[in-house]
Queue: 2 jobs
Job 1
Amino acid sequence: MGEALLTVKSLSAWYNAGSEKALRQLLIPGTLKRGKVRHSNEKMILSDFSFALAEHEVAGLIGLNGAGKTTFLKVLSGLLPTFRSEGICFCGSPVDFRKQDFKLCRYTVFAEDNSFSYFTFREYMAYVCAAYGKEVPDVSELIQGFHFEEYTDTLLRELSTGNRKKAFLITAFALKPRLLLLDEPVNGLDFQSTEYLYEQISGYKEHGTVLFSSHILESITLTSDRVFVLEDGRIRQTFERGQINAEDIREALHDENDR
Ligand SMILES: Nc1ncnc2c1ncn2[C@@H]1O[C@H](COP(=O)(O)OP(=O)(O)OP(=O)(O)O)[C@@H](O)[C@H]1O
C-alpha cells in the first residue's frame, strides 16, 4: 500500500433522536463512554473499528443492507456529528471532517440526492467549482462518456434519478478531489454509463483516492485495489489487491448472512 491518506482509529457512530444533545455531549470531555448503547434513544451503528485509506487507491465497501456503509460515508463527509474516534489523520495531520480544509479535499456523491434541485448541471458545476476555489474545467469528455449531452441545462429536479446521479458523478470526476466518496454510484445508471463509471473509478488513482460502496460485486472486482466487507457496523474482512475475486467476496457476504 502507498502512503496513508486517511487513518481513523476506533470509530464508533450512532444515531440519536436529538443530535443537538449528542453534539453537546461530544463537547464535554468524558461524557461519552464506550459501550453499545448509552441512552435509550441512541442507536449504535458503527462499532469501534479502525481503517486506513492510502493515497491513490480505489477502495470498495460492500455489505448487506443495514451494515452501515452509508453511515460510514456520512461520518467521513461530516454529515453525522454523533461519532467518536481515538484519532483521525489526513495526510499525517489530525483532521476534523467538518472543517473547511478537509472539506476542500473531499467530495461526496450520495446514493440519493435531491439538493440543488433548482440548479441546472452547468450552474451546479460552476457553484461547486467556486466553492472549491477551482476554475470550471472542461467536462465535455465526461458529459459524452455519461451520455449526458441533452441534460446539461435542465433543472436537476426535472431529471430522472439516473441522470441526476450522473450530474453529481460528472461534477465529482471533474473536480478531482484528493478523496472521493461515492455511495452506491452504480445505482440508477444504465449499462453504458455503468461501464464508463467503472473506467472513471479505476482511473481515478491517477488523481486521488476513491472509497465507494456498492451492492454490485462486479463494480468492486473490476475497479478496487482493496475491499472492505462491512458487517453490523464493523469491518469484518479486508481483501487486498491480488485476493479480490467475486467468489471469495460472495462467500464472505454469505457467511455474514448466516451468522
Ligand atoms: N437517520 C437514521 N436514524 C436512525 N437510524 C438510522 C438512520 N439512518 C440509518 N439508520 C440505521 O443505521 C443502520 C445502517 O444503515 P446504513 O444506511 O448506514 O446501512 P447501509 O449499509 O448503507 O445499507 P443499504 O445497503 O441498505 O444502503 C440501519 O440499521 C439503519 O436502520
Job 2
Amino acid sequence: MTSPLELVVPLHDPNQSLRLRRFLLAALVYGVAIGLMGLYVVLGFMTLVGWQITTAAILAVNGVIYTVLRSGRNERLRDPSLTGVQMFCTCLLMALTMYQVDSARGALLLLYLVLLMFGVLRLRQWQFMALGLFALVCYAAAIAAVWQTRPWAVNMDVELLQLAAMATLVPCGGFFAGYVGGLRRKLRDRHIALQQAREQAHDLRVLDPLTAVSNRSRIIEFLEYEVARAARLEQPLSVIMLDLDRFKRINRQYGHPVGDEVLKRVAERLQGAMRSIDGLGRYGGEEFLVVLPDTPLAEASVFAERLRERVEGCRFASLPPTFKLSVSVGLAEFRHGDGVWSLIERARGAADHALDAGGGRIDATESR
Ligand SMILES: Nc1nc2c(ncn2[C@@H]2O[C@H](COP(=O)(O)OP(=O)(O)OP(=O)(O)O)[C@@H](O)[C@H]2O)c(=O)[nH]1
C-alpha cells in the first residue's frame, strides 16, 4: 500500500526523493516567511493586499516547481534539482516582499541569510557570487520601486546601510561556498575510488586473474545452484570439461608467457560462444568448465563441437603458423541424484577418455 509520505515524495527513487525533501525544506522556510509577513500586517507594516499578493506569488511559484519535480520532468534538465531556478525565484519573491513592506524591512532581510546559507551548501563559488549579486540587484530594484511609488515608506540612509551590509556577505559566502564545494568534490572522488575498489575486490573474489572468466570456486558455486534448480524443476542440465592437450609442452617449448597467452585467448574464444545464462570458469591449470542450464545432452554435444572448433581454430601471434592447438572435451548430463562432484567427475572422466583416444575429440560417458 502506498504510504501518505510516498504520495508527496517518491521514496523508490533516492535522487528524486532527496530533491523533493530539499524542496520541502525550502517550502517550510517560505511558510515561516508567510507567517512573519502576517505579523507585519497585524503590526501595520504591510497591507493585507500586499500580503495576499506576495503569498499568492509564493504559492504559485512553489506549486510550479513542485509539479515539475513530482512529475519527473526535471530529470530531463541540466540541473535536475532545480537549485538555480529555485534560488533565482527566491530572489524575485524576496524583492516582491520588500516592495510590499512599508517599514522594518531589516527583520525580513534575515531571510536572505537563509537563502545564502542554502547557496553555500549547494552552489559553486562563481554561482554563489552571481546569486549574491542578483539578490543585491533585486533588493536595490525593490527599494527604488518603493521610493518611486511610496517615498514616505523609504529611509534611504537605512536602506543603503542594509544594502552595504548585504554586499559584505556576498564575498564571505563565496569563500565558504568554494570551501564546501571543494569538500564535496573530494567526497565524490573518494566515493568513486571506494566504488572501484569494491568492484576490484569483487572481481578478485570471483574471477580468474589470468583469463578474467569465473574462477574455480565461482563456477562450482554456479553449478551448485544450477544442479539444485535442475533437480527441483526437473529441467535438463549439462556440463562440458575442456582440457587443452599437451599444454605442458607449450610451456616447456615456448615459455610460460606464451602458455599464458594461449590460456587467455582460449578463454576469450569460449566466452564469445556462451549464451547469457551459461557459465564458464577456469577449473584448473588448462581445464575449463562450461555449465549449460536447461540443455539436454544432445544439444550440449552440438555446442561442445562448436567450442572445440573455436578453440582449435585459434591462432597465436607468438607461436609458429604450423602450431595447432587441440582440446579434449568431456560431456556429462545431470541425472536424478547427481551432485556437483559426481557430475564434474563424469565430465572429467569423459575428457580423459577423449585424450586417451588421441585428444582433439569429444567424449560423453552417458552416450557410451
Ligand atoms: N602458462 C601457464 N601454464 C599453466 C598455468 N596453470 C597451469 N599451467 C601448466 O599447465 C600444465 C598442465 O599439465 P598437465 O595437467 O600435465 O596437462 P597437459 O600437459 O595438458 O597434459 P594432458 O592434459 O595429459 O594433455 C602444467 O605444465 C602447468 O604448469 C598458467 O596459469 N599458465
